[in-house]
Write a structure and sequence with these properties.
Structural class: alpha+beta
Strand content: 5-15%
Order of helices and strands: HHHEEEHHHHEHHH
Radius of gyration: 19 Å
Distance between the termini: 28 Å
Strand order of the largest sheet: 1-2-3-4
Shape: globular
Largest sheet: 4 strands, antiparallel
């Protein structure tokens, strides 16, 4: 089912739902408020995804914007608690990811949006890629150091992402890489992403979707590099 492409920002009710959920993170409360969840959270995210589709295509035609409730760009609200000490059943934020058409999961290169009452994040990159993909990224940094430097020093990228490329690093160089290797601190990373931060108030603005789309576009140098490393088109 298609939703309207009209999107003018996330309503206050979107964020107030998650404020209430945080105070009542249990199956009984969620079941009683399932209709509210669909109306205040699911439908607005679907509208955002569909409105983002043509903007995303203008950045790269290889990333998917699917408003489907299951198997689309929107993340499920249900937490995987099987191996976690934290047994809260629901995520206390809304999120979506625009994955590459060649990617099978959230660990492929993609653009991301995270919406919580206390923080809104958006950007692009790859989160904890599998060992073969991670090795390819590291090897490309070694093989094309000037290209990687150009990513790091891109002024348009830094305008939207002042923190630059992020990602939790290893404490020591990865096996097979020299300790004096250029760009070693980046080679040590386990993820590679750019993330901008704003407030829930800003996400309620009609200009929010354009702000996110501009940031996605500004992340293109990194996204192009990552896609080239894992042998997919950008």
């Amino acid at each position: 089912m298609l939703v309207s492409t009209s999107f003018s920002g996330f309503e206050p009710s979107f964020f107030s739902f998650f404020t209430e959920l945080k105070a009542n993170n249990n199956k009984s409360w969620f079941s009683e408020h399932k209709v509210e969840y669909e109306r205040c959270v699911v439908e607005p995210i679907q509208a955002f995804i569909e409105a983002m589709s043509p903007r995303l295509y203008g950045i790269s035609p290889y990333f998917i914007a699917s408003p489907k409730k299951v198997g689309g760009s929107m993340f499920r609200i249900y937490r995987d608690v099987r191996f976690s000490k934290d047994k809260r059943p629901y995520k206390e934020h809304g999120a979506c990811q625009f994955r590459h058409e060649a990617g099978k999961d959230a660990h492929a290169p993609g653009f991301y949006l995270h919406l919580a009452p206390d923080e809104v994040l958006f950007g692009g990159g790859v989160w904890l890629p599998g060992s073969p993909q991670l090795l390819k990224i590291r090897e490309r940094i070694v093989a094309k150091p000037d290209e990687w430097t150009a990513v790091l020093e891109n002024t348009h990228l830094h305008k939207h992402f002042p923190d630059g490329v992020s990602g939790e690093p290893l404490t020591r160089p990865p096996r097979g890489f020299k300790a004096d290797q250029p760009h070693l601190e980046d080679i040590k990373r386990k993820s590679f992403y750019l993330m901008a931060r704003t407030s829930a108030k800003e996400a309620q603005s009609i200009e929010f979707i354009n702000e996110v789309a501009e940031a996605y576009g500004a992340s293109s140098p990194l996204m192009r590099f990552l896609c080239g490393a894992v042998d997919v088109s950008f």
